[in-house]
Amino acid sequence: MRERIRLERENCYPRLLHLRFEVNELVVGSSLLRIYRECAFATQRCDFERSEKLEGFLLTLAWEKLNTGHYSQVNDAWRALYSATAACKGYRLYAQNKLTEALRACDMGLIMGGDVDGRSLSAFASHIHSLCTPPTTLIIKKRIADEPEALSNSQQIRRIDCPSLEEFFEFFARGEPVVMTGVVSQWPAFAKWSFDYFNSMIGHRTVPIEVGSSYADDGWSQSLTTVAEFMHEFIENESSRGVGYIAQHRLFDQVPELLDDVIVPDYCAFGEESLDRVDLNIWLGPAGTVSPLHTDPKSNIFCQVYGKKFLRLIPYSETVNVYPHEEGFLTNTSQVDVEHPDVSRYPLLKLAHVSDCVLSAGECLFIPHAFWHYVKSLEASISVSCWFSTPPPSN
User: Fold this and answer.
1) What is the pLDDT of residues 110-121, one digit of tens each?
2) Residue 168, strand partner residues
3) 367, 184, 365: which is closest to 261 by C-alpha?
4) What range(s) does the JmjC domain occupy (predicted)?
């Protein structure tokens, strides 16, 4: 037993039996926890035929729970059960020398359930990835998307170089967007991150992607693929499926080592929570990706690490001028294509106060709480959004 514990610590193996304590028995029931415990025992005894059957049962049941109703309303106990069982599956496949399958099992646990036991699942996944054959080097042809033309009622967003907290607070207090230079350029990511870097570091990792010109379009879809497959289809080449995007993904939770490359801006301290509660997401894709005009429930410091993006903003107080969808899942999204607006159909847009900017690598943009914003990649781009909670607008 001591030898196994030593190996678990040295090789980043998850503590399978211990993971049962991550699952709330009052929610999932004692019988399911007994089945999980048997699964973990079978895995560690190398009774893989038995453990595989139990994994299948537990993963299927947890998957159904995770996909019943809205994902945000699912009790965390089911996420923990899914992750713990995925760890058993990853452990078994790893022991069978099926590294690619083991890594995918771990990633499915991280994506659907989250990390467990002090990041043991993400550490195990990183360990497995380090043993895989490195993906081939990328050959990227530079492609550029057209910058949207200025509207008759648009103006450029103000720019300031590395503002002090006091200088930034003036913009924050009056809810005014501002482009800040000299902030992201201090991140380790600014010197390190590229598509080749991500391909070599996490090429075999499974991630969710979006396919289609915009999430508001009928042909839009989501799927799971490896980073290397995504790079080959959408970054190296122009896919027949259209534009692909790793969008709003919590990759920092899946691969915590990436956190060493970023510095949460001190400006987020003006939020209602501590800096360690800032919600970080990565956006990675080719030229031409579009996020239609929409609003988010938090303030955002949108950081451009690689490539260029165009952003168009409209204050939340002018919501009536942007014609949001009135029902369904898109009530936070405008019906207007603000790159090529049909002002005869949406005449109030001409009354809106529109602000534009092009964000280059090393720059960031403060997007005030609930501001409507449209984003278009002008080049292959890597961005990080830093969402932080602030009081809602008064109007």
Assistant:
1) 999 999 998 999
2) none
3) 184
4) 253-395
Q: Going by C-beta distance under 8 Å and a sequence separation of 6 or more, which residues neighbour residue 126?
A: 12, 255, 257
| DSSP-derived 3-state class of residue 370 | coil
Span 102-113, average pLDDT: 98
Q: Which residue has the tokens 């009536």?
A: 320
Amino acid at 395: N
Q: Which amino acid is at 381?
A: S
State the DSSP string of 323-340: -B-SSGGGTTBBSS-SSS
Q: pTM for the complete prediction?
A: 0.91
Yes or no: say if 238 and 289 are a contact pair by the CB < 8 Å rule.
no
Domain ranges of the chain: 2-131, 154-388
Cβ atoms within 10 Å of 309's Cβ, excluding its own: 25
Residues in contact with 30: Cβ distance below 8 Å, sequence separation at least 6, in sequence order: none
Tokens of 201: 């570091």
pLDDT digits (tens, 9 = 90+) for 284-314: 999 999 999 999 999 999 999 999 999 999 9
Spelled out in words, what is the top-level CATH class assigned to the domain 154-388? mainly beta
Using DSSP's 3-state secondary structure scheme, residue 14 falls into coil
